[in-house]
User: Which sequence fits this backbone?
């Protein structure tokens, strides 16, 4: 299973499934990361975490730990 | 008939700018009852009986963040007459997600599509009539920044009152069937036009919605059936369908210009959060903020207010008046030392604070503050803090009062409370004389004492963060760090100044009272007592405060203060330190019989060395560093916590921690330096260390639930 966490910088991927539950999953979905959404990984913060992605035309930052919940292809 | 408009929209959608444009200076700023979320209300310009309620900036009406719960409680419970939904035109897709939810509340919605100027500059085209038709609500394009279309948006909102809001968006057929089954299971207590919202929330298994219903129907079997046939959980089904629907709407209403090159904001971001440049740039920005608001301009302004305005100008002027009218001496004392001194203590912080707030407002509205959280998150999240906690702590090295106030920029409730509680552990400027005093008197001016004080402060922050985030008070509130990084833009002067003034004023108003009162009480306690001629004005050593110090000095015996028989002086000095920490040194001066001492108290070094061991001295220093800060900072804590229980929890925690750490330092320090060891004290110290280690290492009890007292918010 490939997740957003392992996705290389500069790659664009599409969401297959969201794992996990509760507040964080809902927040991720509320921010527009749902099944089939295109996510472009823009950069990693200077200390290695979190990551910055472009989704639905805007910039979003999320921690790698949470990015792991997002299965992509 | 009075009309209430609720202004709702995403963060960074220009909501504050629109609110300011709609209401002008006619605003009332407060907090939602019992929570630290800011509440703003204002009168609509040109409509004497229309009020506008600015709801917190939210992305959704989920049950997971405080802002969202506050907003939906207001919308459901208070039922405003119309919702003015501000939408960022440059980011329609995500913004419309909230709109689809607002439409289900049974309240007429008017949509203001903001950032018209930027949309046009980008060459994009929004077909507003089509959008309005597709969504089933009135819509208008505005530019809050340029003041375009604001009057028209307000007119539309007022005219939409008492119209019915039709729900255009339908979910999948299976979901709609389930929703209508749930709706029919709802009792009559739910108004007809809110039934759809309640049904959707029940379908999503929203754990906060039950708190607003008398009778909760059991709909689990209905939900489970849909989940099985659609192979997903109900919350995901709803969210997915909303976005699918929005995509279809956008396809018809938005034409994006082809964009090959990067936007200006993208280019700025490439440099500012660059892997290698980000940290140096961050350091420079922080240095500028610190240099101007703490080292130079801010301190000059504050010193002038304290030393000149409330030192040379106002007190003599008032004294002249009082003397000329033949005012009684005690009343003169009360007015000059108690009241004027207290007011001075409040206002003295204001100039520095305004300078700092100016920076904060700029950093927030230009978009850099979100990047600070992005850059610093990795370090701070380990201690239950936010990346944005960096600024309060940095400012706290100058003065804890603006430091605590700076925590306002942290959105997450838990991170903010944690920051408020721990910021004053950083040694502030006023604690430096205490450090110099102890270093000089007991350690021969050793150069390690001052840096060690900073390590103690930072250590206290880190350990407190780890310990507190595992306590019942903090566990639970989830802090998902899924954060929008808004596009950079130049803020308007008006908005920055307004934000600066609002925060400064809220400090004067909310923190001022407690500071003034406690200054007067302490002025009385240290100036009055039973002297040789009965009760009256006396010297400090005969005062009520000294008597109290004498009575309670034993409390500090385990900390080593009473060893030399002068423990009450330490206790009194620590208490007067609550007015301002540098008072500790002057109080010692007075108590040891010196009229005036230098800032580092060089005259009394000998006296202190005579009644304290090095271990006791360091324990005294640490106690003063960590215990409750000065009254001004306590006022700021009270203002920012906005809750008596949390305020006392913070103060109690700080004092308790100070006591335990000082005790450990004294007992272990005495053992290591070969002093006279007290076995009982040593056992207590060992037990405390063990307790600390357990608190640090025990497992997390985070269960991901937002604990909000719905009853406490009922009056919202």
Assistant:
């Amino acid at each position: 299973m490939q997740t957003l966490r392992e996705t290389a910088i500069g790659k664009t991927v599409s969401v297959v499934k969201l794992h996990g539950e509760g507040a964080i999953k809902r927040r991720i979905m509320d921010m527009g990361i749902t099944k089939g959404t295109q996510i472009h990984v823009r950069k990693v913060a200077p200390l290695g975490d979190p990551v910055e992605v472009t989704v639905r035309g805007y910039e979003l930052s999320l921690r790698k730990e949470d990015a792991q919940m997002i299965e992509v292809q | 008939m009075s009309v209430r408009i609720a202004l709702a929209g995403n963060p960074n959608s220009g909501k504050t700018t629109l609110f300011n444009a709609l209401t002008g200076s006619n605003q009332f700023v407060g907090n939602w009852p019992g929570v630290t979320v800011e509440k703003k209300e204002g009168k609509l310009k040109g409509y004497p009986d229309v009020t506008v309620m600015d709801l917190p900036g939210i992305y959704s009406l989920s049950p997971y963040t405080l802002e969202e719960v506050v907003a939906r409680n207001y919308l459901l419970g208070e039922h405003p007459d119309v919702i003015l939904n501000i939408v960022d035109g440059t980011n329609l897709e995500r913004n419309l997600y909230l709109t689809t939810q607002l439409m289900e509340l049974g309240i007429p919605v008017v949509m203001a599509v903001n950032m018209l100027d930027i949309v046009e500059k980008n060459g994009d085209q929004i077909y507003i009539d089509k959008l309005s038709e597709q969504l089933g609500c009135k819509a208008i394009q505005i530019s809050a920044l340029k003041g375009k279309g604001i009057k028209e948006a307000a007119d539309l909102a007022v005219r939409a009152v008492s119209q019915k809001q039709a729900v255009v968006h339908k979910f999948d057929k299976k979901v709609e069937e389930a929703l209508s089954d749930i709706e029919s299971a709802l009792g009559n207590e739910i108004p007809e036009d809110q039934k759809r919202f309640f049904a959707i929330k029940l379908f999503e298994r929203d754990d906060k919605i039950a708190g607003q219903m008398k009778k909760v129907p059991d709909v689990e079997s209905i939900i489970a059936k849909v989940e099985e046939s659609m192979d997903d959980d109900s919350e995901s089904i709803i969210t997915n369908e909303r976005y699918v629907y929005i995509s279809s709407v956008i396809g018809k209403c938005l034409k994006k210009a082809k964009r090959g090159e990067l936007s200006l904001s993208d280019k700025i971001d490439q440099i500012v959060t660059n892997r290698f440049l980000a940290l140096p740039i961050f350091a420079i920005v922080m240095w500028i903020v610190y240099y101007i608001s703490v080292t130079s301009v801010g301190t000059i302004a504050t010193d002038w207010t304290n030393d000149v305005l409330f030192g040379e100008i106002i007190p003599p002027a008032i004294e002249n008046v009082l003397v000329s009218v033949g005012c009684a001496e005690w009343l003169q004392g009360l007015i000059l030392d108690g009241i004027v001194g207290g007011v001075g203590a409040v206002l003295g912080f204001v100039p520095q604070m305004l300078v700092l707030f100016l920076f904060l407002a700029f950093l927030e509205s230009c978009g850099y503050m979100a990047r600070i959280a992005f850059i610093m998150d990795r370090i701070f999240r380990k201690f239950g803090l936010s990346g944005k906690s960096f600024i309060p702590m940095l400012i706290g090295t100058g003065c804890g009062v603006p430091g605590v106030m700076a925590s306002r920029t942290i959105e997450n409730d838990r991170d903010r409370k944690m920051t408020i509680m721990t910021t004053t552990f950083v040694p502030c400027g006023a604690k430096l004389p205490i450090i110099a005093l102890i270093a000089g008197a007991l350690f021969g001016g050793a150069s390690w004492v001052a840096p060690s004080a900073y390590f103690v402060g930072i250590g206290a922050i880190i350990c407190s963060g780890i310990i507190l985030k595992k306590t019942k008070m903090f566990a639970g509130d989830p802090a998902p760090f899924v954060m929008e990084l808004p596009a950079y833009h130049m803020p308007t002067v008006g908005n920055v100044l307004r934000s600066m003034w609002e925060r400064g004023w809220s400090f004067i108003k909310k923190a001022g009272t407690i500071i003034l009162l406690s200054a007067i009480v302490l002025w009385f306690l240290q100036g009055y007592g039973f002297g040789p001629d009965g009760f009256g004005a006396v010297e400090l050593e005969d005062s009520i405060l000294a008597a109290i110090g004498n009575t309670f000095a034993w409390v500090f015996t385990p900390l080593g203060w009473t060893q030399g028989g002068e423990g009450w002086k330490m206790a009194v000095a620590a208490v007067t330190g609550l007015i301002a920490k540098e008072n500790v040194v002057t109080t010692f001066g007075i108590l040891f019989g010196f009229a005036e001492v230098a800032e580092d108290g060089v005259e009394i070094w000998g006296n202190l060395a005579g009644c304290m061991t090095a271990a006791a001295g360091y324990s005294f220093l640490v106690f003063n560093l960590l215990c409750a800060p000065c009254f001004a900072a306590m006022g700021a804590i009270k203002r920012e916590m906005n809750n008596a229980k949390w305020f006392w929890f913070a103060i109690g925690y700080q004092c308790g921690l100070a006591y335990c750490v000082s005790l450990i330092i004294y007992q272990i320090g005495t053992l290591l330096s070969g002093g006279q060891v007290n076995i009982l004290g040593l056992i207590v110290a060992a037990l405390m260390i063990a307790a600390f280690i357990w608190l640090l290492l025990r497992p997390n009890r985070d269960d991901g639930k937002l604990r909000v007292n719905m009853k406490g918010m009922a009056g919202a």
